[in-house]
Design brief:
By secondary structure, the chain is an alpha/beta fold. The chain has a single domain, classed as Stationary-phase Survival Protein Sure Homolog, Chain: A (3-Layer(aba) Sandwich). Helix content is about 25%, strand content about 30%. The strands form two sheets. A nine-stranded mixed sheet has the order 3-4-2-1-5-6-7-11-8, sandwiched between helices. Strands 9-10 form a two-stranded antiparallel sheet. It is globular, with a radius of gyration of 19 Å.
Length: about 250
């Protein structure tokens, strides 16, 4: 398969490099367009108020374009300017450091890159690992590539994203692969108030998703139990239930 590989942790991130290695070892043709610096939680933001620049990075474990921009920038710029006629069969985003389940889907730059690809009509897979400091995840990369190879992309409707999350345990200890919906739980956020050495106040975001609010059989619940989770997402945000209510509004309002 022809694969465009990107992420939000940056072109030098461990997750991207092991995924690149696994793809090449399986005989896939890979092009990399990824951010030069970490872009976690930037969602689908794009660069509009400054020039967008890219440099070619060629190192022992990866080669491709590093973009001084967001993951969405990478997909847009990559597909329109940097591919030299290369048309990917699938866009693969990851491996993200940290899970992207439930409300994380809205914030994630990794998922956003896959969403951008899907909105352009390309098959897209986002991959995340439930640990913010991934190490020794070569087997996890091979697992993700195996999932990519087995998704029936010709049967997946257009403008869809497949979101894969892997638990923080050896692949041999996965309980299996569970196809499931995302949890509807939300983050319970709080800010830590601190002072810098000059006495100026700053805040550091923290928070958690309360266990009691996590939907059973959802991505977050199953991931915690040791399952790898596979969640289909789509670009259509239409709320059909509320649409029906709003359609009953009078034609003219005072």
């Amino acid at each position: 398969m022809k694969v465009l590989l990107t992420n939000d942790d940056g072109i030098r991130a461990v997750g991207l490099r092991v995924l690149y290695k696994a793809l090449v070892e399986e005989g896939h043709e890979v092009r990399v367009v990824a951010p030069m610096t970490e872009q976690s939680a930037v969602s689908s933001s794009i660069t509009m108020l400054s020039p967008l620049r890219a440099v070619f990075v060629e190192e022992e474990h990866v080669s491709g374009y590093g973009v001084f921009g967001t993951p969405t920038d990478c997909v847009k710029l990559g597909m329109s300017q940097l591919m030299d006629g290369f048309t990917p069969d699938v866009v693969l985003a990851g491996i993200n450091a940290g899970a992207n389940v439930g409300p994380d889907i809205f914030y994630s730059g990794t998922v956003a890159a896959a969403i951008e690809a899907a909105c352009q009509g390309m098959p897209a897979l986002a991959v995340s690992y439930d640990n913010f400091r991934p190490a020794g995840i070569d087997a996890h990369a091979r697992y993700a590539v195996a999932v990519m190879e087995r998704v029936p992309w010709d049967k997946v409707p257009s403008r869809r994203v497949i979101n894969l999350n892997m638990p923080d345990r050896p692949v041999a200890e996965f309980r299996g692969l569970a196809v499931c919906p995302p949890t509807t739980a939300a983050w319970d956020d709080f800010y830590l108030r601190r002072e810098d050495p000059r006495g100026r106040t700053y805040w550091w975001l923290d928070g958690k998703i309360p266990d009691e609010s996590v939907t059973a059989e959802s991505d977050k619940a199953l991931l915690k139990e040791g399952w790898a989770t596979l969640t289909p997402l789509k670009c259509d945000f239409t709320d059909t239930e509320t649409l029906e209510i709003l359609l009953r509004l009078p034609d003219r309002l005072p």
